[in-house]
């Protein structure tokens, strides 16, 4: 039987990560070209950098959620063999899909946070005809991370449930007997 405490804890961590990723998407940095007071050059001015912090927070909460699920399920590496059944096959597939969605979400959040924190320092001197390129994060990077956080949350819950069902009936080779059963000799 799956532990309700673990499932609720993972859900809360995933929900916080999702909320932070959505907030990061809404608060991406924006830039505008500004001319100095003497009209000698143009430069970029960026607004708040809060979405970088939101993205890193979502990254860490999602990682904590994944670590908790993998520690609770022993990551298929340790422990007794699972019962060969449909639950075990489903758990294996969900394990792989869970890690795939997790990696995509983490890459989106990490890349978005790094790119959002990067501010160009270029400027044009003496009123150049081309304004400086004020690069900002593309729209949708944190949104994609939030979507994959959502997918990871769903798949990890199903994975843990399937794993728990397969673990409930642990596989014991040879009917659980440790040795050869012997009867009395007459």
Automatic annotation (TrEMBL):
Family under the similarity heading: Belongs to the DESIGUAL family.
Signal sequence, start to end: 1-23
Keyword Ribosomal protein recorded: no
Protein name: Fiber protein Fb34
Subcellular location per the Swiss-Prot or TrEMBL entry: Endomembrane system
Membrane topology of the entry: Multi-pass membrane protein
Taxonomic classification: Eukaryota, Viridiplantae, Streptophyta, Embryophyta, Tracheophyta
Keywords: Membrane, Signal, Transmembrane, Transmembrane helix
Cellular component per GO, a single term: endomembrane system
Residues passing through the membrane, by range: 56-77, 89-112, 141-160
């Amino acid at each position: 039987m799956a532990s309700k405490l673990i499932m609720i804890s993972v859900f809360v961590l995933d929900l916080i990560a999702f909320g932070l990723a959505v907030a990061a998407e809404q608060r991406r940095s924006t830039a505008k070209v500004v001319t100095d007071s003497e009209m000698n050059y143009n430069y970029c001015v960026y607004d708040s950098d809060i979405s970088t912090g939101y993205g890193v927070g979502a990254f860490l909460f999602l990682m904590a959620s994944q670590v908790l699920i993998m520690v609770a399920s022993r990551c298929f590496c340790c422990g007794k063999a699972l019962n060969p059944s449909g639950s075990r096959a489903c758990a294996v597939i969900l394990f792989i899909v869970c890690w795939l969605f997790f990696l995509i979400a983490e890459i989106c959040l990490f890349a978005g946070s790094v790119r959002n924190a990067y501010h160009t320092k270029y400027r044009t001197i003496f009123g150049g005809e081309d304004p400086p390129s004020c690069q900002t994060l593309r729209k949708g990077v944190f949104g994609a991370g939030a979507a994959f956080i959502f997918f990871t949350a769903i798949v990890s819950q199903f994975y843990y449930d399937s794993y728990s069902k397969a673990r409930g009936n642990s596989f014991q080779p040879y009917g659980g007997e440790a040795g050869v059963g012997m009867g009395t000799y007459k």
